[in-house]
């Protein structure tokens, strides 16, 4: 019966999802390479890859909450808190780097756990909960630091943030590992599949014996953990723990997963597509810099890009519905 | 099971107002606290400063409230506000238009940007969260590109003069403007067909549509109104600062939700409280001003605001009204549970 | 495993859904659970499967009391269910959906080969043609149903609950399902078979329990001692006969609505009918026959792509619902009162006046509560809506009173044609009669009604003529003789004519 036709339609659909992004990236690369001689230099590639790292993890942090039909407005605030906590632990308390990093990750995960528990226990919309916790996290951050950054970080830590092999920054290692781990987690492990199941059809998941609330808490916790990881990378990248780390993450965190095709209703996310979306955003940003265009265009284009992606998804959904 | 057996009759007026009374009590408590800890809190200078920022917070809250009424949200309020601000600065300083004309055009711009949001949301059928997240970035970027982020600080002197004006020693006329807008909104939501339609569209869009309410139109009008209100809030800041700055609006997101949510407006749509929003804004402004006067500084303010918002929604969660609404939702259908949730 | 239901009761605001329900489900039997819509079947199922907790009474498994706080607990106790709602994850494969509760893993990693081979084993029991590697969203509704049953089987349940399992599957699939059910029963499992299809129940079950108005009307009666009449009597609380509507005279010369070869964007073909002034025209068919969808097209909520719709003799095109109401005086009462009919959190007053806000507003667009009350109050009185106050939130009313508010809304709007979709779903028997009388009364006052119902007795009680729909087309029109047996045979004949495949399973689908 119609199953076969649907399948091929499904395959085309999948192909579309990838192709739009891939085509945009290729066009961007070719255009920039031909227009600017500086684009393909080793240093420029290094700069691009470096700016890719933090954004990618931030996008993943948001993607996990979107996957279960939630959102996390506190990614940036939590990131800022972890950044100054890690900086403070290393500078003021003289913690060894690995210990400080572990503590930072724990704070991130803890913040996420609070978000998750509050959301599930109160039954209140995650939007309001994370809006409130975002404010609280920022308040703690600013209250502790009074907006003064920590500059004296261990040399080894800062060296990691600036080191590179040719065009490849050391900094790229953690996000690549995280991406692989995340893809594996979502594709092959029981909790990963449960996370997608809850996002795809919450009642069905619940009726199938999946602990829905527990899965939502897990998604928030992982989101916080990743926000913490992104913050630690940002500290390494900047060479100092700025309290302002994270203030500009919000838009980016939604932009990449949405451009990558995450349905806000949950259940449909893709690690690879989100990563591709981040690549596209980074290329656009880099192109703006190379073309010496007003940096404000980045803001404008990001908004336009989200709308375009949403429009495209919508169009596809309508076509799929009609078939 | 006949409903006429009355345990479930309409809650008394007092119960209905309990949220507002609680809020007012908390505000009085804080006033008492701040006044006793820092007498400077009730100085006419501080009260004046408080009344000016209260005016802005109230209108920002209204801007979000009218969209919450439809069950949507508007994350672009800050961006629309700053677009109106910069437009008014440009029209007054560069073009040299008279103040009222420039202000009117700036308001129109705000309304237009809001309309644009509403139009795209209704036409695309996409969640207002995403659309306004994107348009916030789009509007802000557009404004920065056009204005090159330059402040307009050579505005006509009347602007700053009006901003400094005090009535009765400590009341800014801006507060009166905000309250007048509030009165107009009360009329809109209580006594007009349009206001009712917006609430009906928020409470149950499908039922409203099938009852003959033009739901799409109601949503677009609510967003247009939200844009105009955001522009008004921005213009109030122009009066207060005596300049049109591109940084205005960046920190509006939290207060824009705080005021209506503290005041009992439902995130799910279908119910608003104008008086609640005013009280919510008053609580926020009181805290900000009090912490400032006590020299605790702005740094901890964010923490306080976050905790207050959390406390408010959690208290609300345990109130009876909510419990009943929730069980109603649960009875209908497991899947529709969300719609009954209050936030 | 023996599942004992002991004195179970459950209340919702404004209504007691279940009261003192007791019966026992034994291993090795197929136990039918029957009842009309709103009799409490779904609530009982939700309690047994851990979705709801009972307010009174308890469940016992093998004589030991159990307290389920979530579906997990029920599954762990060996109870699994195929619910009426689609409960699959659209973007997961068939195999993964079947094995979702306990996917086979190796070193903590899901072994997808094993997932598919295990799933295959359960799927083969019913339908070997479905590929376990297909994503569920690409399946047809019937295939999804099969997958759900396979999923329930995979849970190795000792009590298997099937809630209307044949509602959307064909005869062959149903036969295969019944064979599986018999086999499982013979293996000693307890099967709870929820259905309102009498023939199906008679064919497959060993015992039957009937619920009526949230109470037990027959508990665990051996099917051998029951016959169709006894079951129906238990279900509706009286003998199966048609209520008297009084003499109705409809003037067939005045046609208020006429469809000529209408095709819609929803897939209707060649729909033609005439609705006369003061007439109740029934629209009968199986779920999925396209009745509600036709209503949507008629009120402008979906497009008419070809053919002609005439109102009072004039061809019209209705662009949207507000236009249908204001210009054409055409209203629609949805079968889903809560999602599409009423605004539950708003008072009765606004719910009635909503359709006339524009009309009663002053030039400035102002309306007052008093204006609304003037509209709503007389109707609340006339329709005898039981409420302490007109300011009461509609959500707190009982189903019957909610339905009266729906009708009041359209009387306020002054519609001339009213489409009523399943008017008595979820309404108890006594109120049902009141609603029926109300519908009769409004037509005597000149309104014309297009009545959609899956309730055969209701249809025969109310309708003057009955249109039978099948596959988004009109299969035929029958003059109502008010004689139940021949009428229902004739209607079923029309429904099944030409669709031999669907016939056996769908037999007297809503009888």
TrEMBL record, chain A:
Transmembrane segments: 20-40, 47-67, 73-90, 97-118, 124-144, 165-187, 215-239, 251-284, 296-315
Membrane topology type: Multi-pass membrane protein
Keywords assigned: Cell inner membrane, Cell membrane, Membrane, Transmembrane, Transmembrane helix, Transport
The UniProt record lists the keyword Cell membrane: yes
Pfam families, per the entry: BPD_transp_2 (PF02653)
Domain of life: Bacteria
CDD domains the record matches: TM_PBP1_transp_AraH_like
Location in or out of the cell: Cell membrane
Main location: membrane
Subunit (UniProt): The complex is composed of two ATP-binding proteins (LsrA), two transmembrane proteins (LsrC and LsrD) and a solute-binding protein (LsrB).
Biological role: Part of the ABC transporter complex LsrABCD involved in autoinducer 2 (AI-2) import. Probably responsible for the translocation of the substrate across the membrane.
Name the UniProt record assigns to this protein: Autoinducer 2 import system permease protein LsrD
Source organism per UniProt: Kaistia terrae
Taxonomic placement: Bacteria, Pseudomonadati, Pseudomonadota, Alphaproteobacteria, Hyphomicrobiales
TrEMBL record, chain B:
Keywords attached to this entry: Cell inner membrane, Cell membrane, Membrane, Transmembrane, Transmembrane helix, Transport
InterPro entries reported for this sequence: ABC_transp_permease
Transmembrane segments: 20-42, 49-69, 99-122, 128-146, 167-189, 218-241, 253-279, 299-318
Subcellular localization, as worded in the UniProt entry: Cell membrane
Domain of life: Bacteria
Pfam annotation, one family: BPD_transp_2
Location, primary (coarse class): membrane
Membrane topology: Multi-pass membrane protein
Function statement: Part of the ABC transporter complex LsrABCD involved in autoinducer 2 (AI-2) import. Probably responsible for the translocation of the substrate across the membrane.
Self-association and partners: The complex is composed of two ATP-binding proteins (LsrA), two transmembrane proteins (LsrC and LsrD) and a solute-binding protein (LsrB).
Protein name as annotated: Autoinducer 2 import system permease protein LsrC
From TrEMBL, chain C:
Keyword hit for Repeat: yes
Family according to the record: Belongs to the ABC transporter superfamily.
Residues covered by the ABC transporter domain: 3-238, 247-496
Molecular function GO terms recorded: ATP binding
Annotated PANTHER family: CARBOHYDRATE TRANSPORT ATP-BINDING PROTEIN MG119-RELATED, D-ALLOSE IMPORT ATP-BINDING PROTEIN ALSA-RELATED
Name of protein: Sugar ABC transporter ATP-binding protein
Keywords, in A-Z order: ATP-binding, Cell membrane, Membrane, Nucleotide-binding, Repeat, Sugar transport, Translocase, Transport
Superkingdom assignment: Bacteria
UniProt xrefs under Gene3D superfamilies: P-loop containing nucleotide triphosphate hydrolases
Pfam families: ABC_tran (PF00005)
Keyword Isomerase: no
